[in-house]
Amino acid sequence: MSKVIKSTDIPRHNISDQGCHGQINKQKHEEQAREICCTVNSSKAFQRCVRLPFVLMAAALTVYVCILSSDRYFNFWVQTSIERTDLHVSEIDFPAVTICPSKLSKLNLSTTQDHAQFEKIFNLAQDVLWQTRDVAKATVPDFAQFSEYNGQLLQNLYQYFNFTCEEFFHECYWRRQMMRCCALFRRQGACYVFNTVRGQNTDPTWPWVVADAGPYSALNVRIRRQLPNLTVNSIGVILHEPDQYLASSIIYTTDDRIVVPVQPLRFTAEEDVRSRPVAMRHCYFPQELNRIGELRSDCIRNCNLRFIQKKCNCHYDTPLPLQQQQQELSSSSDGRRRCSLSDIPCFYQNRLSLYSMSNIIEESNESVFTTVDCGCYPNCDHTQYHFLAYTERCNTHETNSSFIVLDVYYQEETLFSYRSVLRFSLLDLMVSYGGIAGLFLGISLIGAIDAFLVCIAADFSRISATCKNNGLNLCPSK
Description:
It is a single chain. This protein is an alpha+beta fold. It folds into two domains: 52-76 and 433-452, no CATH class; 82-422, Acid-sensing ion channels like domains (Acid-sensing ion channels like fold, Sandwich). It contains twelve helices and 18 strands. Strands 1, 4, 5, 8, 12, 15, 16, 17 and 18 form a nine-stranded mixed β-sheet that branches. Strands 6-7-2-10-11 form a five-stranded antiparallel β-sheet. A hairpin with a 2-residue loop joins strand 4 (169-174) and strand 5. Helix 1 (12-75) runs antiparallel to helix 11 (426-440). The relative contact order is 0.16. Pfam families: ASC (PF00858). Residues 1-21 are annotated as: Disordered.
């Protein structure tokens, strides 16, 4: 039979003892919890203090490397590397060849002129305008007589080249087949040009190509020295791109045989390079050239003619008429003094040439070397024709007195092709930024999105709690 124990039956000292022990245990637990919290807080504070310098260092490294990447992106964007080493010569155009008689003798002059004196002055002027080796032998007294020919304009010198194409050329070969010379060459001023797309009455099938290499494989011509009204003592040969009409390297010789092995180099650029400024890529794309309306040779020519006008205070009309360009130049030169034989000493003093025009013009005196940069850039898709010419005198008296032989050909059947590409594109910059941030700061796109969502959720919770306190429920229960 069970017995009911009343609260009055329990000794009061036992109740008080149990209450004291419970209170003591509670205090101990609270003290232990406080100690644990203090330890945790101290540990977290220590971690934050230690972590802060590393975070700042990582952030500084991130900013520094990002600046380096940005500098590489904005300042070093285009690089040119070898694309192919086996590009066949049949894939490029054969160079245009310009042949100009330079030094002449036995000129058919009028009886009122001193033949010997004018012939000497004429050939000395040609030496200066071609900048030949013989011009270094000239002295100051040699130029004293030029003042007597103030009315003789330089462009009028070519009236003495009154010979025809049939008289100038003896025979011509193209790709080892004999062809009519006047079908290969077109007259421009005092010169004859082959395989050009510029000028007057050009062949619509130009530019032609060659698929072979070695002597006699391309262009071989024989030029007569003895013409009806004069004798050709020397010629100048210019190799240039078919769509240009100037070159910085020319061949000038009095020898009987001229051998020109050509070593071309091909340059192209990918379309993405267009996004960079011209000053960084150093070339123009065809659409840009069409918009500018001026090829590189036009730009170089006009720059050199402005330099001539600055130095000698005269204007010169190029001996190679270029249809529209020539018309523009002639119209713009009206009212200005044209260069004459009396300006040849100025040409000599400033080493000015009318045939070897370069993008860099030397402007130096005896003690100071300076240059003028015309800033004329080529087509991004172009071919450079490098060559090392060989000349020799023939042994036979007949050949030496009758003909000048010119042989232009490719030295090898293959060539190097170079391509300009973006060194550091926008995609590379984005990858660089992401890799740097992930390496130094541990930041990723997913992590950034998660952090953004956490912040949004915290803001929403805070707004929701505020609304509930104000009696509003943003998320009512169904």
